[in-house]
Amino acid sequence: MFGCPLLDGNPGEIKRTRRRWGVLFQEGALFTALNVFENVALPLRELRVLPEDVVRELVMLKLALVEIDADSASKLPSELSGGMVKRVALARALALDPELLFLDEPTAGLDPERSTGFVQLVQRLRQELRLTVVMVTHDVNTLLALADRVAVLADQRLVSVGPLWDVVKIPHPFIRSFFQGHQARCEQESVDDFRRKLAQSRQAA
Asked: ∠ CA 21-140-77 to the nearest 5 degrees?
């Protein structure tokens, strides 16, 4: 990765390479005994070269980037909503200004509104910070919003790689089931939404 072998390369070079990427884990993986500020500060402090006032400035900058207010910096992970945990974890992943960002099921566990907001946040940060994002997800809406290229794993192998609209045309059972299932859900949601609005109009009358 970045031209550096990660399994048998020079330890110092591997360490420097690892600082060029950040990871957002599915459940956030925040340290429960550390507050928001300390979680984001951790990778910065591990560098052992930054004075504490610089660490503080960078942490507050990263929290602002993910739209976490300063008053939340002293909160523990147990005091945060699921959406806030994701955002704090994202701030930590961005602490060292990575060039590459790995996202593991970024919208898992979020309701539709928070999921949409988080996807929009990732879109904005990707553009502003010029990030390359590698993402694992089962959420088709997230794929549609963020992915330029898609790799599909099925039958214990890689069955397709390419732009999303090319991948969905592949006549593979898993691909067909996955994307047609999404289409059916969208159609049903549209029907349900229409019925709900019709019932509301009848009640209003």
From this structure: 50
